[in-house]
Task: structure prediction
Amino acid sequence: MSLVFYVIAGLSVAGALAAVLLKNTVHCALALTVAFAGLALLFLELDAQFAGFAQILIYIGAVAILVVFAILLTRGSETPKDTVYSRHWIVGLVTAAGIFAVLGWAVLHSTVALPRETTKPEVTVMDIGNALMGRYVLPLEIVALLLTAALIGAVIVAMHDKEGAQ
Amino acid sequence: MTPLTGYLLVAALLFAIGLAGALTRRNAILVLIGIELMLNAANLNLIAFWRYGPNPEALTGMMFAIFSIAVAAAEAAVGLGLVIQIHRHAHTTDLDAMNRMKG
Result:
């Protein structure tokens, strides 16, 4: 494990922790951007250049901006006077800690079964394009349909109904 | 510790953080942020297994991650649209305050 990995992993985890712990919602969105950037760097560290840059473009460029817009449109930037956590936060925390314990135990106790290829994969964007247009063309079409449906659905859901309910 | 183990542990930690955020925050947008973190942790697992697994030239894990990113983007758009509509209707994004199904 290299030092670079530890630095990037620490950055991602710190960003994620800040995103779920900070009180101000806008600060949470900015911390989320840091976590996304750390994950993109982890993808680049894993020699997945295309996924890393797609992560930067889609998550930092689109999803984080969308979250900021939603926060500003719902006036969520006003920090509530009382707590920001729900009434049953202890149940959620225990559930998350339990799931992390189970996942960590499973990862640490299955090191023999895990694959350990060391050769760096030689994959270019051209290979990815060929795979998307060849073997994975049907999932690509379905994703195109899904994105169209989500676009229309999001606009219809958020559209302002001037005449009131019908 | 092999490199793959490190990546899997980081992904498990990010997933747990996202789950804790989704389960403990009151603001609906913060719940969506938690869900996005969980999806990203899954993507990190997929990419790590693609990198260290056999036959990386088949691109299976990479394709899973790319399609997962696309689906997550669609989910974020629809989810935030729903949150905006709920805020317009109920004038709050506090999930503890939304406790009735009648409109």
Q: What stands out?
A: The radius of gyration of chain A is 21 Å.
